[in-house]
Design brief:
The protein is α/β, with parallel strands linked by helices and 302 residues long. The protein has a domain of 208 residues: Rossmann fold (3-Layer(aba) Sandwich). 43% of the residues lie in helices and 14% in strands. It has ten helices and eleven strands. The strands form four sheets. The chain has a four-stranded parallel β-sheet. The chain has a three-stranded mixed β-sheet with strand order 9-6-11. Strand 2, helix 5 and strand 3 form a beta-alpha-beta unit. The relative contact order is 0.15.
Length: 302
Amino acid sequence: MVGAAVVRQLQAAGFTNLLLKSRADLDLLNQASVHQFFAEYHPDIVVFAAAKVGGIHANSTYPAEFLYQNLVMASNAVHAAWQHGTQRFLFLGSTCIYPRLAPQPIPESSLLTSPLEPTNEAYAIAKIAGLKLCQFYRRQYGVLFHAAMPTNLYGPSDNYHPDNSHVLPALIRRFHEAKVANATSVSIWGSGTPLREFLHVDDLAAGILHLLQLANPPDLVNIGSGEEISIRGVAELIAQVVGFRGTVTNDTSMPDGTPRKLSDISLIKSTGWSPKISLQDGLTSAYQDFQHQINRQQLRSV
């Protein structure tokens, strides 16, 4: 999802010299393959959007894979980029790197100040390692390696898998299937009270291009919408967009996750970027994308 949005943004800006490799073309878990890629192509700029991602269920079920795969991919790519002369490396992570009880909105300075949220600790540790690799290579070798931490993302090419997707695409699928089945209610995980921030992936892509144009970007910067909504609130908004007319219930036997997670975006806004796409408009386009994937039988099975 993120990689496709970045490509669209760069192409719209007139860039034609894009070096693109799919997962089938380049296994980032294979150190030899990664070094061979950098040795052959010597990319000037790398936007590292690769990750093994998922929601609470996936993170809780596969913590070993989330830690190992994300850690190895980051280590392989950052080191190979430095070794083969990449001029600039932008590492993308997630605001889940911050402590569970970080001050709200969450400033970049809260990193590593208290314990992480247990339900996504493995993923967060791997992403913290990746951003620290960029910071330390920049400090030690003078290369322009830096990191950006997006908030919860959604938009075209999202993963709508019923078990392994993030909360927003999972809810889009759940409410759509309930509408099709003429169900009278939809149950959502937890109390519905946790507050979340959502950013359309096209806004993120614009932020990435903006950061790549800065001569001296921050080592670490948040990218978010700066607005928050409760899980129940976003569920009701999705129900409205989808056209589901039933009721929304809460399964309080399931975990809530972090009680509140709003990123402080004052740093990136001070450099001249701000989000443009409202949640209402973004959800409408996301639902259209979901329907498009259904029509083309492109919904992911993992």
